[in-house]
Amino acid sequence: GGDDATNFYLAGSYTFGNNVISAAYGRLDPGFRGSDEIDNYILGYQYNFSRRTSIWAEYIGRSTSNPEIGIQDLNAVSIGTRVDF
Fold it and tell me: Which of 2, 31, 41, 44 is the most exposed, fewest CB within 10 Å of its CB?
């Protein structure tokens, strides 16, 4: 059955000046026959122009060694601007 699933996630960030770098890693073991672990990872950067305005970019990845079960590897990049009112 799927009642033996395990999951963990580790995340951290470091701020220096107006810069923030961040990283995260997680692993999911679905716990059912024929499944394989899924690894998730994120690397990010943020620049704070002020207390209200920042820009950021992230790389997001997911990998599994058993794509036959319908879960594919994933790589993505996201960028954005944030303004707090």
Answer: 2
